[in-house]
């Protein structure tokens, strides 16, 4: 057998179930890989190896005893450092919580444990998840495994880099403006932002702002589906919770793409900034898919109001989350947080009502747009992974970006619609860095989107130019 | 047989199904009643009798032909004048739409028609639904059938008065701060605000503001359950839509109240203004329920932030809906609308973020409050129905009310939680006007709440002091 850290989560789980791979063996392989690679990458920032080893041993004994095994039984998992883990340092990437050790697990962490997952450690993130570069004053930057001078993306950048380098087979992440998608495409892995409510969030800041969605990251679509069994659930503390049977995610088979009607757009008709090099990669990828689907048409949803809408509603969230911290501790808060709070302080209730109206229009228009299609394909990133020293993508095609959100509009516009989006690796960009696409499904059509993505991943994997990029570390 | 207009909807539907009552006969009885009573009350403000008669005839033929009949087959229904009805004048109670005749039905109207309902006419409402008194510049006031000098309540006041006087067996209404509940209790009928999303709303102003919920009004709980079969559904245009099988509402049986754990409060621990006379009525009613449930305890949820929270978030909605109208037409807009828009114009995005944070806290606390109970009982109104000339309840226990929302806090606080609330008649108040209670169920526990309400209604109906009040017209 190869090094178990190289196995997919699905394959590892199969072998564990058959007693051909012990959870301990798998965990030790991951720990070895973390020890070998993490010092260069800085993806995993805190671990509880003692507990992980103890749980792996218990998992091993459960196999030997012939017990019924839960879906993630014995699989090592990384948790983003924005999620509380009992007894394991959780900092939110902030100096304010530098030495914080939670006394309870977040509900999602608890669900993943209940599904059999073994929490190995915490993955790095920008402070409070604000940024497309994973970097913070507590732990410093997470480096891109394909070019150590570049960012792994963010905010789930630690997770993406840990997966790309086989340090862990599964990682949890979260996504507001694209934080499950941007690091996935920049590190050549898969991230899945599901329909809001499917993965309930008991501690959301605002009652009905669906911007933040948590979910799985992995190296393949089948592994994403497997991890969903530990993510979905019901929780009355989340008013958007949308119960679903986790078992349904175990039965997913690839879709027949000849039944799938597809639209594609590279930049929503010029609305989202897009680097010309990425445009070229994306169009070449679309070109290779010519006879793959029932139909494949260039078609632009109307996202003309998305930038301002997202920015304003995001400010409501930022003031609710960070205003008090900003008043007391602005000396140690990141620039991104300060910029958002300051912008929000200048706005009025009328601005909010205008943004809410735009949001409604975007939702309605996008639902209508989706009436005659099953899938929308969009680039996963507006630019190649940028240099860590730049902090944000400074310009696109020579045009200066006001802040990191501008270069994220290709993803954040889709946040507004609440449709599920899967970020799928798709070869390399013009700089030789990983490139990926966003696959957008029908709202509440999460299972169908996973089936389509699975079929498409299988096709891309047969194409040397479009298959998942593997770092050479 | 009695006059068919006096039948409950459920009984009328049973007789129609058996061929013992023809839809035409029922419709004509309602029309006669409308002609006799409506001139005094002004509940029904527009009708399409020609179409209604044609549809009743078709419904009659369907019975004779032995066709399968939908759940509301042949039942006359009133639609609130805030909902578009194809070919039937729809004004939103506003001079701005005084002569508006829609070319399409609202989705809810279409669902009610598809379920077999026969739309007879439109019921009166304050302009754009803003008010606890049904009165407007297009049609004038709807009078309370128990005292013609007093209001029928609002905003679904036309619906409540039409039901109380047997003009129609079923009416649709809508509720933001209590508009299905306040007129129901003041007119001695039943109104049901379900969990947001169960009755989808394709044309909501804001994407995720669940304040407005549309639903059924009737003279009894079984009739409410019956009408729900035509209200629930799925509609992707509503991001909060929460699909449910309409058939489940046909199978509801009364709950065994000995299994039901109940909390009661008359004013959320002094947070909601409450007239002392109403307080007395409510406490007497609670007193009679002493051995009815598994438990019945005085217990206050924390709604300390509800007033400001609701007012601010409501302003976001009002600016989104009415800002342009206010700019152009403030000379013909109602005082309530103008006051809300003006208040919103003075607020900041920070105010919104504070209100959103309060909303989240209220939701979380209320969910925790409900963990150990199945039902919360609260008065349906803070005051007796007030005089039409007063426009709003001017004072409560000698304390001046700033605006009509203050006297509505007993209902609007519950709007914030998103829990289902049924307004149930409960005898007469100290002035001899109808009194009622709000029965609050678990979130998404709509079916269970209807079962509990049905059992409680049956008990109250055996008590001469607490049974539904009937107007003497």
Structure description:
2 copies of one chain form a homodimer. In chain A, helix 9 packs across helix 11 (349-369). In chain A, strand 14 and strand 15 (434-440) form a beta hairpin. Chain A has a single domain (4-460), classed as Amidase signature (AS) domain (Amidase signature (AS) enzymes), CATH 3.90.1300. The model of chain A has no long low-confidence stretch (mean pLDDT 96). With 473 residues, chain A is an alpha/beta fold. Chain A is built from 13 helices and 15 strands. In chain A, the strands form 3 sheets. Chain A has an 11-stranded mixed beta sheet, with helices on both faces. A two-stranded antiparallel ribbon of chain A has the order 4-5. A two-stranded antiparallel sheet of chain A has the order 12-13. The two termini of chain A are 21 Å apart. Chain A has helices at residues 9-17, 23-41, 49-64, 107-114, 157-164, 182-187, 221-231, 276-288, 306-329, 335-345, 349-369, 409-417, 446-460; strands at 44-47, 76-80, 118-123, 143-144, 147-151, 170-175, 190-193, 213-218, 261-264, 295-298, 375-379, 395-396, 399-400, 421-428, 434-440. The first copy, chain A, is 36% helix and 15% strand. At the A-B interface, helix 9 and helix 11 of A face helix 9 and helix 11 of B.
